[in-house]
Amino acid sequence: MSEEKTNVEKLQEELCLNLKNAALIMDDEEIKKADEFCQGYKHFLSNCKTERQAAAFAAEAAAKAGFEPFDPKASYKAGDRVYYLHRNKAVILTSFGKKSLSEGVRIVASHIDAPRLDLKPTPLYEDSELALLKTHYYGGIKKYQWAAIPLALHGLVILKDGSRLEVSIGEEEDEPKFVITDLLPHLGAEQGKRPLSEGIKGEELNVLVGSRPFKSDSGSELVKLNVLRLLNEKYSMVEADFISAEFELVPAYKASDVGLDRSMIGAYGHDDRVCAYPSLMAALDCKAPEYTAVTVLTDKEEIGSSGNTGLQSSYLKDFIADIAASQNLSAREVLRPSKCLSADVNAAFDPTFPNVHDKLNAAFLNKGIVVTKYTGSRGKSGTSDASAEFMGEVRKIFDDAGIIWQTGSLGKVDEGGGGTVAQYVANLDVDVVDVGVAVLSMHAPFEVVSKLDVYMAYKAFSTFLA
Ligand code: MN
Ligand code: MN
Prior knowledge:
This protein is α/β, with parallel strands linked by helices. It folds into 2 domains: about 20-115 and about 270-465, Zn peptidases (Aminopeptidase); about 115-250, Aminopeptidase i, Domain 2, CATH 2.30.250. It has helices at about 5-15, 20-25, 30-45, 50-65, 190, 220-235, 270-285, 315-325, 330-335, 390-400, 420-425, 450-465; strands at about 70, 80-85, 90-95, 105-110, 115-125, 130-140, 150-160, 165-170, 180, 205-210, 245-250, 255-260, 265, 290-300, 340-345, 345, 370, 405, 430-435, 440, 445-450. The strands form 4 sheets. The protein has a 9-stranded mixed beta sheet with strand order 1-2-3-14-4-15-19-17-18. Helix 10 links the parallel strand 17 (about 370) and strand 18 (about 405). The two termini are about 45 Å apart. The structure holds manganese (II) ion (2 copies). The site of one manganese (II) ion has 3 residues, from loops.
C-alpha cells in the first residue's frame, strides 16, 4: 500500500470540514496540562455549589492575585486590575488594557447560578410523624431526577436582630444529608402512568429532615418541634427566620472523574461553572492586555437573567459607565466597539438519544469548545444571532491560537431550545457570540463534560482577553 494520498483524499482534506477528537490533535504534554487544570476545576465544583459561594471564591481569588476592590470614583490606567463583588452573587473582574476604552472592551460573561431546589418561605411541616421541607425548584429541571439522591442544604439567614448566618449542612462526610423520597416500584404502577415530566410533581419535591419527636407525653407535631429545637440550638434560628433566608438544596456529592480513561468529569453544576471557572482563571492570568478585559460571573441566568443580579439588570452597563467616566467617555462610546464571548454550555450529542440532534450541527464531547451562532427556539426567537463578521473574527482568533473548536446548535429545529445571556449583552450594542463547553445530561444533578474541552475553554478565554 502506498502512503501517498489519493486525489480524492487530498481534495477532501482541502475542501471538507473535518473535526477530530482533541485527544488526537493535542500532544501528551498539553493533555497533561489539561488534566492538571481540571484538578483545580473539580475542587472549585466541590466547594462552590451556590452562586454566593462561587462569587466569594472568585472575589477571594482576585484579591489574592492582587486585584483591588473597584472604586467607581477612581481612575485607572493600563495594568490596573480591579474586582467588583455585586450583592454577593455576581462578580466583575477587570484588567485595564493598553488601548483607550474608546476602542471598546473584551467581555467574557458566564453564569454561576445552577438549577437547584430552593426552600419555600415557610417550608417546615410535619406529616405522619416525619418532618419535611417544602421546596420550589429554580431553573429548568427534570423533577424526577432529584428524588432519592443525597442533598446538601446551603443558606444565608438574616436573623431578627439583623445578624447574618451562613448555613451549610451535608457537604462533609460525617454530616447528615437530606433526601426527597420516591415511591417504591412495587407500588409505582399508577405513578408509572404519569408523563415523565410529572413522575415527581413540583409539590412532591418535599425534603425529609427528621423523624424523631421531642420527648413529651403531650403536645402535637413533636418531630417538627424537635427539628426546630436542633436548628435553634445550633444556629439560634426560629421558624420565622426561614422567611428572611435563602436556602438552596443541591446534590451532596463531590465532583469526580468519569470513565476508565478518566477523560471526563461528572458533577453537579457544570452549567455554567465549566465556563465560569476557566474564564476566572483566564482573568487572573490576564495582565495589561491590549483591550481592557472584563470578566463577568453573573447570577440568575437559569431563570431568565431577571433580578438585580442577573444580566437583564443594569449592573454591567453601570460598571462600564463608571470605568468610561474615568476616561471622560460615555458608556455607549465604550460599549459600541466592544466584543463579548457569552460563555455558556451547549448540549453534547448523546448517542443514546440521537433523534433530538441534527448531527451535522450538533456539538460533540472532546471536539473542543462550542461556538454557537444562535440559540433561541421556534424560528430563532429569543436569541442574539451573531453576525458573519463577528463569527469570522472569533474563528480567526481561535484558529490563529490553535484552539480546538466546533460549532453547535441546541437540538433540531422545533425540538425545543433555550437561551443564554448573549441576547442581554447584545442589547447593550455589543458584538457577542456564545462560546462554551459541551455537556451531557445538562441540568441533571450529575452532568458530564470532557476534560480536554474544559481546557480549551480556558485557552479560548485567555486568548480572547489577552
Ligand atoms: Mn447555562
Ligand atoms: Mn442552564
